[in-house]
Amino acid sequence: MFLKKKFMPNFWTMAIALIAITCCSPDTSYAAEIHKLCDGDGNIEKIMKLIKEGADINQLDENGMAPLHYASKHGYPICELLLKNGANPNIRREKDNRGETPLHSAARKCYWKNATLLLLRGADVNAKSEDLATPLLVSLTSNVLRGAKDFSTLKQIAEVLLKNGADINVKDRTGNTPLNTAIYLYDKDRESYDSALAEFFYKSGAVPDMESLIGMGRLDLLKQSMKENKIDDQRRSPLYVAILFERVEIVEYLISIGLDPKKPIARNWLPLNIAVARNKSPKIAEYFLDHGADINAISFSPNQSFPTSSAPIHIAVVADNANMAKMLINRGADLNRKDDYARTPLHKAFSIGRFAMAELLLEKKVNEKIKDHEGQTAFDMAVASGHEEEAISLLKKYGYPSPYNYKINYEAKLELFMKAMSDIVEQKDKKDEAIREAEQLLQTYPEIVKIRSSFRDNTAIHSAINYNSFAPSILKSVMKLKPDLTLRNNAQQTPLLCLVDSCGPNKPDTEVLKKMIAGGADLNTKDHAGNSPLHFIARCNQNYFEAAEILLQNGADINARNNDQITPFGSIVRATGYRRNPKMIEFLRKHGGIE
Which of 176, 530, 541, 573 could make an S-S bridge to 562, C-beta 3.0–4.6 Å? Predict the structure, then answer.
C-alpha cells in the first residue's frame, strides 16, 4: 500500500507533464519537409500549408541550418514568406560554417535581393561566424575559392552590404580583409587577376596593406607604405605576392631596396622557382637569373601543385610552360638535374604526359637511361602511367635506342596491375575493361606475382584477395602463376592471413585456401600483433567452420598465442556482442581449444 501511494502521484505528475509538453510545443513533424522545400525553388503553397500546420520555421536540421538559411541562397519569394511568418533573420548555423546567419548564405551566393530583404528585416550586416567572417568577407572568400566568373554580381552584393553599414576593414581569423581578398579574384577567360573590385573597395575607404597594394599594382602607394610599415610584419612576403601577380616593376623595386632573390620565401621556396611555377611570362624569372639566382637550385615545399623538391626546369615541365622551359634551356639549365627522388625533367614529362616538354628535352639529347631511387627510367614511368606508345614514338623520333632494350621494370607493371584492381571498384562503368587489363598484365608479366611494391607496400596476390568479391577470376589467375606466399603486405600479413582476415558476408575462398596450403603456405604464420589464421577465423561473426576445419586438418595450432598471450579460443570467449559466436566457441572447444 505504501508503494502504491508513493508511486501514483509521481506517475500522474509525469503523465500530465507529458501531455502539456505535447500540447504546447510547436509541431516539428514537418521540419524535414519544410527544410527540403526551402532548399530550392520550393512550392510556396506547400510551405505556407506547413507553417499553418505548425512547422517550426526556426528549427535547425541535421546540417545545423534553419529553413531561412536555405531560402536565403535560393528564391526571393520563399525568403520573404519565412520572414513574414516570424523567421529569425539572425539565426546561427550550428555545424559546417558555424555561426553563419542567413545573410551569410545570401552573400555567399551574391543574391543581393535576398540580402536587401534580410537587412530590411533586421539582419546584422556585420554578424561574424566562428571564423570571424562577416557576410561581406564570405561573399568574397567563397567566390575566390570557386573561381567566380561574373564579378558584377560580387560588386552588387558588396554595394548592398556597404550601404547598410558593413565594415569594409573587417578581418577574419586568418587576417583576410575585403580588400586583400578581392585582389585574388581571377578572370579565367583573360587568365589574369582582376583588380577592379579591389579598386572599388580602395576607393570606398578600405585601408590597404602591402599585399593589397601589390595586387593592385600600386607601386607609388607601396613605396609610401614601406616607409611606415615593416616588411617582416606582413602576413605574406611582398616579394612572393609581387611574383604571384607578375608585377615586374614591383619585383624590380623590391630587389633594388635589398630583398635577396636567392633567399627562400613562402614556405622555403626560392623566388626563381616560384616565378617559374606561377608565371606565364619568363620576365621575372629572367630578372632573378640576371641578379644571381641559381638556375639549378632545388626548392623544398609542401606545395601541392608541384613535387616537394624541384629545380626550375622540373617545375616548367610540370606546368607545361613552353616559353619558360625554352628560356631555362637557353640559359643553361641542367636538363639531367635530379630532384630528391633522383627523377629528371624527362621522368616528369613522361610520367604525366607532357609530350611537348619531352620533345624539348629529347631534342637536347638528355640522358634517358637515368634511374630514380626506385630504379625506374623515364620510360618505365611512361609505361606505368599509360604513356608507353607516345614515349616510344618520341624516343624513336629523336634517335634514341629502342626502349625495349631496357630491363623490364616489373615493379612498374605491378603498380599498373594494382591500379587496375582498384579501378574495378572505383570506376564501376569500366569494370570489365579494368579486369581485362589486370588479366593481360598477369599474362604478359607473370613475374609480378613474385615481387612486392616498395611504393604501395603490397603485392599482386594481396590486391587480388582484397578485391576477390568483385573479380574472383583475378585471384584464380594469380594462384595459377604460383605466387610467393611468404610475401607480406603493409599490415605484415602473408597472403594466407589476408585471405582469412574477413568478417563480412563473403567467406574465405576455401578452394584458394587449399591451393595455398598445397603451395606451402605457413598455417601458423602471424601478423604484427601475433595473430594466426585461426585467430582471424575465430573472431569473425560468421560460421567459417569449413575454413577452420581445413586449417586444423593440415596442422594449424589451435592454441597458438598472440602477442597478448591470447589463443583463438580465448579471443572469442572474451568477445562481446555480435562477435561472440556461441557456435564457434563450441567448435573450438570440441577441437581442444583452451584459453
Answer: 530
Give residue-wise pLDDT tens across range 327-361: 999 999 999 999 988 999 999 999 999 999 999 99
How many C-beta neighbours within 10 Å does residue 485 have? Answer: 19
Q: Of 231, 232, 234, 250, nearest to 242 (Cα)? A: 250
Reduced to 3 states (helix: H, G, I; strand: E, B; else coil), residue 143 is: helix
pLDDT in tens, 39-94: 876 788 899 999 898 889 999 988 899 999 999 988 789 999 999 999 999 999 98
C-alpha cell at 292: 644571381
Provide the 10 A C-beta neighbour count for residue 17: 10
Q: Residue 99 and residue 159: Cα distance in Å, rounded?
A: 23
Distances (CA, A) of 43 to 27, 36, 40, 50, 114: 20, 10, 9, 11, 18
Question: What stretches of 304-354 show up as alpha helix (H) in DSSP?
Answer: 312-319, 322-330, 345-352
Boundaries of domain holding 477? 408-484
The answer to whether 222 and 193 have CB atoms below 8 angstroms apart is no
Q: What is the DSSP string of 109-124?
A: TT-HHHHHHHHHTT--
**Which of 152, 175, 206 is the last residue in one of the domains?**
206
Identity at 242, one-letter amino acid code: A
Write a three-state SS string for 408-441: CCHHHHHHHHHHHHHHHHHCHHHHHHHHHHHHHH
The 3-state secondary structure of 265-308, one letter per residue: ECCCECHHHHHHHHCCCCHHHHHHHHCCCCCCCCEECCCCCCCC
Distance CA 294, CA 594 (A): 70
310 SS3 class: strand
**What is the CB-side half-sphere exposure of residue 509 using CA atoms within 13 A?**
21
> Do the Cβ atoms of 83 and 113 come closer than 8 Å?
no
Residues 394 and 514 occupy one common structural domain: no
Q: Is 26 within a domain?
A: no
pLDDT tens, position by position, 92-119: 998 777 899 999 999 999 999 999 999 9
Those residues with Cβ within 8 angstroms of residue 50's Cβ, 6 or more apart along the chain or in another chain:
30, 33, 34, 37
For cell 529553413, the residue is: 67
**Secondary structure (3-state) at 220:** helix
pTM: 0.60
What is the percent of the chain where pLDDT is above 90?
Answer: 50
Interatomic CA distance for residues 281 and 360, integer angstroms? 18
Q: Distance from CA of residue 242 to its chain's centroid? A: 29
Assess whether 117 and 97 both reside in one domain.
Answer: yes
Residue 142 and residue 89 share a domain? yes
Listed in sequence order, the DSSP H helices in 2-61 are 2-24, 31-38, 44-52
Query: Of 139, 12, 169, nearest to 72 (Cα)?
Result: 139
- Which CATH number is 49's domain given? 1.25.40.20
